[in-house]
Amino acid sequence: MLVEKLMKPEELDDAHRFMDGISVYIQPLLNKSRQQRPQVIGTALLVEDNGAYYIVSAAHVLKNINSIFFYPGGDQPRKITGALELTHPFGEMGSSDRLDLGVARLLGGPMPPYEDWRALPIAVLRRQTLPRPTEQYCFAGFPSSRGKANPLTKIIKISPTGLMRMPTAFSKAEQLGLSEASHLIFDVDRKAVTRGGSAWELPVLNGISGSPIWCADEKGAHIVGIAIEYHREKKLLVATDIGVVLDLIEAVRKETDEILTENPDAFD
Q: Which band of pLDDT confidence, cut at 50, 70 and 90, is reported for residue 15?
C-alpha cells in the first residue's frame, strides 16, 4: 500500500502551483480503522535542525503515536519511532489543552532524506510579534475526505488542498476562549471560496489538523502556526502560534540528547 499525492488539473492555477510547491514539506499521517483499512488522521510537517529531524502536528493527531504511520517514498510504510513531546501530559488530553500541539523527534528506523517528504529548515519557523500582519496567510494540508484507500490496489490517492490570502479574524480569539498571543484565527467559509473568479468549494476539512500556516511578507514565506481545529458552525480555522512548536522541539531535543549521551543505542 502506498500514498499517491495528486493535484487535480482544474486546480492548477497560480495559487495551487504554490500549494503544490509547499506540499513537499507535509505528509498525511495514517492509522488503521476498525476494519483494518488505512485512513488519514491528520497532516504533519517535517522539520530539520542541526541534523535532527522532527515531525510536527496537532497533539490529538500524535497522541496515539504507536499506531501512526506514513509513506516516505515507495510502498513501505514507516512508523514514527523516537520521542514525543506534547503540550499536555499523557492521559490528560481534552478541551483544557487549547494549544494542542505535538513534536516527535525521529530516532531509529529509516531516517531522512526521504523520497516523498522534504525537511524544512527550522529557520523557516518564525515567531511573530503582536500586532500580527493581517494579510498574506495560507495553509496546505490533507483532508481525510480526499484520502480513500482502494480496497483492491491498497493505494491511497490523496490531493493536498489549501487556501491563500485567508481573511484574518484575530479579534475573535477571545470569544473562543483563546488568546491572540498564542493563537491565530481565520475566517474560512469553505463553501464561499473563489478561484480565478469562479466559485469553488473546499473539501470537508477533517484531517487538516497539523497543517502549517504560512505567512508571506517582504522577507519571504515562513511558517507562523499549526492548524489545530476548524469550527464548522462559526466558519473559523484555529491555529496555535509556531513559538509553541519551537519550545517543544527544544524540550524533546534536550531530553533525547541526554538519553543518547548515556546510551547511544537507546532508540535502535
A: low
Judge whether 98 and 150 are in contact, CB under 8 Å. Answer: no
Q: Please tell me the distance from the alpha carbon of residue 174 to that of residue 258, in angstroms, as a whole number.
A: 40
Beta strand 161-163 pairing with 137-141: antiparallel
φ and ψ of 122, to 5 deg: -60, -20
Q: How far apart are CA 222 and CA 202, in angstroms?
A: 23
Cis peptide before 72 (omega within 30 of 0): no
User: Could you give the CA distance from residue 214 to residue 228 in angstroms, rounded to a whole number?
Assistant: 14
Distances, alpha carbon 143 to alpha carbons 43, 100, 137, 217, 262, in Å: 8, 18, 19, 27, 41
Rounded to the nearest 5 degrees, what angle is found at the Cα of 131, between the Cα atoms of 129 and 134?
110
At 203-239, the pLDDT tens digits run 778 778 999 999 987 777 899 999 999 988 888 999 9
Q: What are 76-117's pLDDT values in tens digits?
A: 889 999 999 999 865 455 557 899 999 999 998 899 999 989
Q: How far is CA 212 from CA 57, 188, 238, 249, in A?
A: 8, 15, 11, 15
Model confidence at 201: pLDDT above 70: no
pTM: 0.89
Listed residue (77, 85, 27, 4) closest to 207, CA to CA: 27
Which triple of cell numbers denotes residue 95? Answer: 478541551
Task: With CA atoms as reference, report the closest residue to 208 among 192, 231, 233.
Answer: 231
